[in-house]
């Protein structure tokens, strides 16, 4: 994906460390996550022995609200939805994370999740023990800066989500929801259903059907059962208005 060094980590770290790094992964593989790509080669190599490449299947719950977060995940081509769930069983999306960031960062021992993390688009990610990532954070350097920058971006995304619910129309919120996933997708085709969108936005499915139909009539999207293709991104951004800013 990126024009990065194709050399595997086995060519970059001492032999003694190679024996503990299972499986062997490549620099390019890890750099598919933009947060990891922002690290220096030396910092990235230091993390290699702690990273595991894992499949992230749609619907998989990485952690639930109130649970201890044992691992953090750096998605590459997967998309993870952060959701707040009510005692009555309802859920609303508060943020979304893809290849630009990380899910499950903890700043202190025995920290518990204040939301749940659900894989929404299947793919892969690099998993690391939260305790190891926390130790690396407190060591300073580019990793600490990247994590703080990502946390700031998540807060901004959360604020935009809240403002959209309060002031945005359903159509604007739908455009924003699709654009957020487009930002984190490798193509303009999104595997989503109207029911999923309605649940995440907290609106009736009929409202999503109506808005999606209107966007399709205007040539902004093409909707087939379970698939939305964004045809006119610029038009979608105009329709989203202040509800959306690029990730």
UniProtKB/TrEMBL annotation:
Keywords, sorted A to Z: DNA-binding, Transcription, Transcription regulation
Domain HTH crp-type: 168-234
SMART domains found in the cross-reference section: HTH_CRP
The UniProt record lists the keyword Transcription regulation: yes
Domain Cyclic nucleotide-binding: from-to ranges: 35-104
Protein name as it appears in the record: Helix-turn-helix domain-containing protein
GO cellular component: cytosol
InterPro entries named in the record: cNMP-bd_dom, cNMP-bd_dom_sf, Env_Response_Regulators, HTH_CRP, RmlC-like_jellyroll, WH-like_DNA-bd_sf, WH_DNA-bd_sf
One Gene Ontology MF term: DNA binding
Pfam families: HTH_Crp_2
Superkingdom of origin: Bacteria
């Amino acid at each position: 994906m990126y024009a990065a060094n194709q050399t595997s980590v086995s060519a970059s770290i001492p032999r003694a460390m190679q024996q503990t790094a299972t499986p062997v992964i490549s620099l390019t593989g890890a750099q598919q996550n933009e947060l990891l790509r922002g690290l220096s080669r030396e910092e990235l190599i230091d993390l290699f022995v702690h990273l595991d490449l894992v499949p992230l299947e749609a619907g998989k719950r990485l952690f639930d609200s109130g649970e201890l977060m044992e691992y953090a995940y750096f998605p590459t081509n997967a998309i993870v939805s952060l959701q707040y769930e009510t005692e009555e069983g309802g859920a609303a999306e508060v943020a979304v994370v893809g290849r630009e960031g990380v899910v499950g960062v903890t700043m202190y021992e025995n920290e518990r999740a204040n939301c749940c993390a659900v894989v929404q688009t299947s793919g892969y990610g690099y998993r690391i023990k939260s305790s190891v990532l926390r130790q690396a954070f407190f060591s300073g350097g580019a990793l600490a800066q990247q994590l703080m920058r990502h946390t700031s971006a998540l807060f901004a995304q959360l604020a935009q989500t809240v403002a959209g619910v309060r002031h945005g129309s359903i159509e604007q919120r739908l455009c924003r929801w699709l654009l957020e996933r487009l930002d984190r997708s490798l193509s303009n085709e999104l595997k989503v259903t109207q029911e999923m969108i309605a649940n995440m936005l907290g609106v009736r499915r009929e409202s999503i059907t109506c808005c999606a139909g209107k966007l399709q009539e205007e040539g902004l999207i093409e909707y087939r059962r379970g698939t939305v293709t964004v045809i006119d991104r610029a038009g979608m951004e105009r329709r989203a208005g202040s509800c959306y800013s690029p990730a």
